[in-house]
Write a structure and sequence with these properties.
Layout: H1 21-34, H2 57-64, H3 68-75, H4 84-94, H5 98-108, H6 126-134, E1 140-143, E2 149-152, H7 154-160, H8 173-179, H9 181-186, H10 190-207, H11 212-224, H12 226-232, E3 242-249, E4 253-264, E5 267-276, H13 282-293, H14 295-298
Antiparallel strand pairs: 1-2, 1-5, 3-4, 4-5
Helix pairs in contact: 2-3, 2-4, 4-5, 5-10, 8-10, 10-12, 11-12
């Protein structure tokens, strides 16, 4: 008989409150299980009416080689003393991606932090700031935790807007994409950009559930954006290191830019993102035009920004 959806764990914390790690673990496992069908994992489907979507708990436990009671406790958010081997088996049974597997591990076996941990300011090394300014004709920026934009070069301002005009809290991809209409117009595939941001925030939440700024950000966006609420409820996680972004720029029109993301070796929470156009393409011509306009296009003054607070 199918189990009823879990009602015992609150899905989210209130604005400014730490995210509930047990709730996160519970909902993540439940949503991953719900997306699988018996035929997806080689189990027979006898055609009986299922009261909940996806695999039953007993089916998932069978695939993972654990007892139903053990898996049920884990899905209810009790990951205490769970072994790495069991998590690996459950990840295989759920067909998790590498990013999802890492997220599950963070939720079930969180790293121990000191009780009173002061928030370390996100600072970018001076040499990296100089490096961004040498990227002639290449939009580039560095992001930190919570999708904060920390520093950027003039070409990034020309393409994405003058971030120097924003307050440090506003220099945040999640706030910009979900709360500023101009970014809805800028990204041709806005939905995919929004999904990518939410997936990264979910990963951040798994690593830092006690981050008050992250909790406040999630609370703010949940109140102000129905799109954010919809996407946050999926519990999807992934990391996109490269691809193509299609933009509709207000000055030069359509742009197709290839992006590459590089996690910095001395600070894995900072990511360098660069954009370039296919040589000889209309997008490459458009980037050169933006570069020639300089501050007339960017209205950004000079060079990179100061780090966000």
């Amino acid at each position: 008989m199918d189990e009823q959806p879990s009602q015992g764990v609150a899905a989210e914390a209130g604005p400014g409150q730490p995210l509930d790690r047990r709730a996160e673990l519970s909902e993540f496992l439940r949503t991953r299980r719900a997306r699988l069908k018996p035929e997806d994992v080689g189990l027979p489907d006898f055609g009986r009416h299922r009261r909940v979507p996806g695999l039953r708990r007993e089916e998932l436990a069978q695939l993972a080689g654990v007892s139903v009671a053990y898996y049920t406790r884990l899905e209810q958010g009790n990951g205490r003393n769970v072994s790495t081997e069991v998590l690996d088996a459950i990840a295989r049974a759920l067909r998790l991606t590498a990013a999802e597997h890492a997220h599950l591990t963070h939720l079930a076996k969180p790293k121990q932090h000191k009780k009173k941990q002061t928030a370390r300011p996100q600072q970018v090394r001076g040499a990296l700031r100089q490096l961004l300014d040498t990227f002639d004709g290449i939009p580039a920026y560095i992001t930190g935790r919570r999708s904060d934009v920390l520093v950027w070069n003039r070409m990034a301002a020309a393409v994405f807007g003058d971030w120097s005009e924003l307050t440090p809290p506003e220099r945040n991809w999640a706030r910009m994409v979900f709360l500023k209409p101009e970014y809805h117009d800028l990204f041709v595939e806005w939905e995919q950009k929004a999904i990518d941001i939410v997936c990264l925030l979910r990963m951040d939440a798994g690593c830092h559930p006690d981050d008050p700024q992250l909790s406040a950000l999630v609370g703010e966006l949940s109140v102000k954006s129905k799109d954010f609420r919809r996407l946050w409820a999926t519990h999807d996680v992934k990391e996109k290191s490269h691809g193509v972004k299609r933009l509709r720029h207000p000055l030069v029109g359509d742009l197709a830019l290839q992006f590459e993301s590089f996690r910095l070796p001395d600070d894995s929470e900072q990511v360098l993102v660069t954009y370039h156009a296919e040589p000889g393409s209309a997008s490459a011509d458009a980037l050169r035009l933006l570069a020639s306009w300089g501050t007339d296009a960017t209205r950004a003054g000079t060079g990179t920004s100061a780090p966000s607070a």
